[in-house]
Design goal:
mainly alpha; disordered C terminus; about 80% helix; 8 helices; about 0% strand
Length: about 230
């Protein structure tokens, strides 16, 4: 499915513009995620960086609306029926990427509730590893999407699922910890937002490994065997 979508993007000017806009959405939300992580972990000044994140989020939302308009305009023309499945795919993917921007923005806001530094303990160390995994997967996902690398998509999907499971385990650990209520809330919120960012990145990956009707779902057999089940 994705290979055909990319071929269409490169062969038709209106669709090529859609593809360029989608790539820009991925780039912007990646930058938002990096900046939000810096704020959350106390590595950068929150106020200025949050302002930049909010402004970038406005641009991401504008691109989403632009792509939707482009899809509608394209499908209103005669002879565009063959590209309908790929347009439906794109409409789903842009929503996932837009949601990544929302969760990055939410992550940057946690500092308002917990302005003090996060504790230097095993819980925060684990969350830092999760953060690193999410930030590493993001550009790799963009590359996989651009090249339709099926094998790498499966590997990244397994890694992404492991990250989301680690987030669930970490929330349980925080619930059983002796952290203050304020610190526990900040840790749980950060963990949940990283889980949601990872999940939406996984949804983009699913366009490489799953047929359209299974988009956003991950069949364990397909992930294990690397075979599509239509």
């Amino acid at each position: 499915m994705l290979r055909e979508l990319l071929a269409i993007f490169r062969s038709d000017k209106p669709l090529a513009d859609m593809g360029a806009n989608f790539s820009e959405m991925l780039r912007l939300t990646y930058q938002m995620t990096l900046k939000a992580g810096g704020i959350y972990f106390g590595e950068s000044a929150a106020a200025d960086e949050r302002t930049r994140i909010y402004k970038t989020d406005v641009e991401v939302n504008r691109l989403e609306r632009t792509i939707r308009k482009q899809v509608i305009a394209h499908l209103s023309l005669q002879g565009t029926t063959p590209s309908l499945p790929y347009c439906l795919l794109l409409m789903s993917l842009v929503k996932d990427v837009e949601r990544i921007g929302d969760y990055a923005k939410n992550l940057s806001e946690v500092k308002q509730y917990h302005p003090d530094p996060l504790p230097d303990d095993d819980t925060v160390a684990e969350l830092s590893e999760i953060r690193a995994g999410v930030e590493k997967a993001f550009p790799e996902t963009a590359e996989v999407f651009a090249t339709s690398d099926h094998e790498r998509a499966h590997a990244l999907t397994r890694e992404g699922r492991d990250l989301t499971h680690r987030c669930d385990d970490l929330v349980e650990r925080v619930a059983r910890s002796d952290h203050s209520a304020r610190t526990a809330v900040a840790l749980v919120m950060g963990t949940r937002f990283y889980k949601r960012i990872a999940a939406h990145v996984l949804n983009v990956l699913s366009s490489v490994v799953m047929p359209l009707h299974k988009l956003d779902y991950y069949d364990e057999k397909e992930i294990t065997d690397g075979e599509d089940d239509d």
